[in-house]
Here is the input.
Amino acid sequence: MPTHPSTTLETFPNPAPDRDYTIRMSIPEFTCLCPRTGQPDFATLELDYVADRSCVELKSLKQYIWSFRDRGAFHEAVTNEITDRLAAAMQPRFLRVTARFNVRGGIYTTVVAERRQPGWQPAPAVTLP
Here is the structure.
């Protein structure tokens, strides 16, 4: 295989570090294993972040997300682990990870975790007519 799972997240310099702008990513094929049953859990991950000095490189992100495929992890734990790893790698001004897990036992689970730099505030929302 030309690529393989990896726990390394690579970054590249933010091309516009003087501006707050939002980067949004949707990862619809996240999988991990239920730590109790070993059955696969499927989720869509949504990443929203405001970069500071660096952005996450997409191929490394894909390989990092792939590394969970054969791991047992509770939904809450895996969402917070991904948030912490992304925050450590990029040190963004703001980061939100939303994990929308598919139904399991008649229950949909959504976990949202956020990190922000101390003192960072978003610009006021603009409403256009």
